[in-house]
Amino acid sequence: MRNKVWVVIVICILAVGGIIGISGLTSDAVSSKADDTSPDNEKVKNVIVLIGDGMGPSYTTAYRYMKDNPSTQQMEETVFDQYLTGMAKTYSNDKDENVTDSAAAATAMAAGIKTYNGAISVDKNEQPVETVLEAAKKNGKSTGLVSTSQITHATPGAFGAHNESRDNYDEIADDYYDEMIDGKHKIDVMLGGGVDNFDRDDRNLINEFKNDGYHYVTTAEDMNNNKNARLLGLFAQVGMKKAIDREPSTPSLAEMTNAALKQLNKNEDGFFLMVEGSQIDWGGHDNDAVSVMSEMDDFAKAFQAAIAYAKEHGDTQVIMTADHSTGGLSIGRDGDYNFDTEAIKAAKRTPEYMAEQIIDGASVEYILNKYVTFDLTDTELTDVKKAAATEDVDTLHQAISDVFNERAGIGFTTGGHTGVDVPVYAYGPHSERFSGLIENTDIANEVFTFVR
Fold first, then answer.
1. Each residue of 86-130: pLDDT tens digit?
2. Active-site annotation holder among 23, 31, 38, 102
3. Is 431 annotated as catalytic?
């Protein structure tokens, strides 16, 4: 009996000690979480949101193939891969369409609401909703929009304007100037295409911005030499040329990103910057793998610029994602289990550029010999010449694209969008908030907590 009593006493002592130990461990863990130096309590001062328009998961995978070193057995990571945190749902809230367009998706990421396709930060009743850019400006932060499309296009438009239709480009440009916050223009840095929307017969917004203290630039050199905190850079009448088609006087997306960061960094209260790789989507719509990979590389370098800045400034949160996927891009086609990246790398210019040169009077043979490093087969050359005979640039563009797509083993299922989930990447103090399967509206709702 005495032995049983001692056993019970020992068990009780061990149990109490275990509880004390567990309690102490829990207490330490709680105090560690509550520590102001822990990542969860780190203050975010700057936010950079990057959007690869149309960049679904097959795009980032194809880009990994493009960057792979074939002499190694394992496929190397791209600049994106180590920052992957989750996936985002992309559906819109449209009575007729549940696959999103860029405007509805951008509104979700800019304002935190689901709305109809074509909406520029207005709700289902066409009423304006606050965006993260506007919230940042209200809180004293500087703001910027960078895009390779016209800066009034759907994605930048949803962050900086409000309109019932994405097609009202001139009205969106007007909003950039007319909509004030505390008596100030809400966007400090705007870089991209879109001269036609700013310099019009009815209004010259370029002069209006200049009169209000903005430095206006049209070349990479002038942009890089800018010292003004308020900057308007327009580098094309509509959208900028694809990355591999640009002249040296036209900045890359990375250069525009760095120029924006250089100016926005001057504000001690921080900033919000949205950077869009716009024409990944345009290449997808055109079923043009050369253009897609050219734009993916341009976007990857801009992402690297954002990450480099964030690594130097620990109070910066970077979030990168896509609004949707475009074209139904497939790696491998027609039962051939190969993606020959060398076929894509053989193009010195995009098929669109080549088609335009041929329609403008250059011979098919001259252009293909000049801008393609492989020799076309007789069948390929005949198909391109037949397309050129139509004198339709779109028909010819597609015929040249088909040569590269088929040689590479890249397929497309549509000329429109698809409804797949898209990857989400993050770097910074609160990257865990973007993990797992999330709604695209969660991106805006988290950013609101950083900028308010």
1. 999 999 999 999 999 999 999 999 999 999 999 999 999 999 999
2. 102
3. no
